[in-house]
Amino acid sequence: xxxxTLRHNETAHVACSKDGKKAYILRAYxxxxxxxxxxxxxxIPPLSEEVDLEDPDVRILSPMxxxxxxxxxxxxxxxxxxxxxxxxxxxxxSKEMEDPIFFSKRVNYSQGTGSVIPAHADxxxxxxxxxxxxxxxxxxxxxxKAEDALExxxxxxxxxxxxxxxxxxxxxxxxxxxxxxxxxxxxxxIVSRDEFDGIPxxxxxxxxxxxxxxxxxxxxxxxxxxxxxxxLSSGMTLEPGTVIATGTPSxxxxxxDPPTFLNKGDEVxxxxxxxxxxxxxxx
Length: 283
Ligand code: MG
What we know:
Blueprint: E1 2-8, E2 11-17, E3 22-25, H1 32-38, E4 50-52, E5 59-60, E6 71-75, H2 79-88, H3 90-93, E7 101-105, E8 116-117, E9 127-128, E10 131-137, E11 153-160, E12 163-164, H4 165-170, H5 175-178, E13 186-192, E14 203-208, E15 211-217, H6 225-233, E16 243-245, E17 267-272, E18 276-282
Parallel strand pairs: 6-16, 8-18
Antiparallel strand pairs: 1-2, 1-5, 1-13, 2-3, 3-4, 6-7, 9-12, 10-11, 10-16, 11-13, 14-15, 14-17, 17-18
The chain binds magnesium ion.
């Protein structure tokens, strides 16, 4: 099942869809956060209102416009990206150990596909994209073993971990440079885990103004999804609705020769097989 937050008749609704074309409004849940706390068994309630996702009166929002907590991110979790990041700034991106790097993103508001990414040009001179598979936790996870991790996953979405490289590298921690308003577009929907066979190995691509920049597969993660959940939950309970951005492969702007950052008017498409496309324009 595919789960959306959409605006219809001036109101935001949670909706589900089998085919990404027709969706059914789930009136039992005010928000996606509530749905994830209560759970959903994947059935469409009788008499639920049907909407056409391509109807111009229906606006697809981020599936989680207001995550309850900061988004948990993996840093340097694809080997090819580790290399390009170190070449850009050895001081900021050297990584010698095999244990995962975690950091977080503040998300006051996550925008969905079709929305703008603010350039923050007054403080950012190096705006960059990072397409990532987002894991949505669906069940309280505490001391979960890797082999049991799948059952704690509700589903998957696409996250663009937008980054201000100058702020990311100027400050000792990455938090501020990753947390500016509008730096966490997500969408277009959350696809439930039962749509995939086990832990999904999905092609991931990024296009900027139609040019292919990133192309990899989520099977190339250094720390895979079960291990991420095992490590995090070993001392930190993961609540339903937790979003984990699993890291990005090579091909970001800072890895180009010369480094090439986003400008106003640029269109960024983050695409993951089986989930869809997250399309945003820099403004
Ligand atoms: Mg990232």
